[in-house]
Amino acid sequence: MYIKSLSVKHFRNYGSAEAVFDPKVNVCIGENAQGKTNMIEAIYVLALAKSHRTSNDKELIGWGEDFARIEGEFVRKNSSVKLDVIISTKGKKVKINGLEQRKLSEYIGAVNVVMFAPEDLNLVKGSPQGRRKFLDRELGQINPLYLYHLGLYQKVLLQRNQLLKQLQVNKGPKDMLDILTEQMIPLAGEIIHKRFRFLKQLQAWAKGIHADISRDKEELEIAYLSSTNVSEEQDLTKIKDILYQTYTEKKQKEIQRGVTLFGPHRDDLGFEVNGRNVQTYGSQGQQRTTALSLKLAEIELIHEEIGEYPILLLDDVLSELDDYRQSHLIDTIQKKVQTFVTTTNLAGVHKQALEQAKIFDVHQGTIQLQGEGE
Question: Which domain holds residue 36?
Fold first, then answer.
């Protein structure tokens, strides 16, 4: 799949801009704060109906405007699909081929993207919240039902936490806690069960990629670190039983703390290289190789699931990788994945990536193909 054209209006620092892209490689050059990251953010928002940079949609609306609009034409298996995202102060609308989608779970997955930015290199050593976000974002693209369950879970979790805070000071209906817990357990079970399956697939791809990048010296293992005693071998029924047992046994502790202490919102990922915890003992090179392996594995996993490669968005990340890792990344994606590269200059981009690439200059919210208007 690839994006053929993009049109934005009142998005970030763009008043109005359009671009037609190459199906293979597109390089966006510009100084900082000119709009190059905003351009690939627009593609990301078209795919996932939200930004990778902010959870507040209103920040995407241009200064002094009351709405932002992003339109894109994509090609999938020789058919065309048009996506449209309109963000206003009143909310957000998403359309597929002109038809408004009432649920985001019905919209997400129409096209697939993989974003790789400098902060993703900190995925291994960063916060558990970042790793959970990585899981939710990538799994949600290929499994809309996961997103639906996650959304419901987060709503119930919010209500449960509010009630636990009240119960902490002896206020609020105690019987309501059991009701919310019973609502939350099936959703938590579905989320955890799907995460186990996703990570098993991701591990299968990442292991070989990591061995290749490290020249067969290192073996990568990915573990799901649960806040309860669930494990990959257990079926959905068993996972739900364990969750029920945990919430029952720890009910008083959660009331005392005023917060939900267990569940998928508290789970994490662990990474081992040759049996050693790479988060604690790994070198920066090992941590970066692990992060790169995960991203490349994502691309292959999406292809395995949907039969097409996703669009790859590389936001100022090539300059953060040494020549060897750059070469491996480019070798892996070449001729398979439509790729967008943002950079302040071409000096930090491997020459191999520039072969037959379409190069755009981005300046003060304008996008111009190099050579046009000269």
Answer: 1-112+308-374
Q: Are 86 and 39 in contact (CB under 8 A)?
A: no
Q: Which residues contact 148 (CB under 8 A, 6 or more apart)?
A: 103, 105
Where residue 202 sits, what CATH number does that domain have?
1.20.1050.90
At residue 373, the pLDDT reads: 52
Rounded CA-CA distance 291/147 in Å is 23
Q: What is the CATH number of the domain that holds 21?
A: 3.40.50.300
Digit-coded pLDDT (tens) for 285-331:
889 889 989 999 999 999 999 899 999 999 888 878 888 888 888 87
Per-residue pLDDT for 135 more than 70? yes
pTM, to two decimals: 0.89
DSSP string for 35-103: SHHHHHHHHHHHHHSS-SS-S-GGGGBPTT-SEEEEEEEEEETTEEEEEEEEEETTEEEEEETTEEPSS
The tokens 């879970």 sit on which residue? 153
Residues 287 and 347 in one domain: no
Q: Distance of CA 297 to CAs 58, 165, 200, 274, 310, Å?
A: 33, 41, 11, 19, 12
pLDDT > 90 fraction of the chain, expressed in percent and rounded: 63
Same-domain pairing of 128 and 102: no
**Structural domains of the chain, count:** 2
Tell the residue number behind the tokens 């009143």, with chain if given: 90
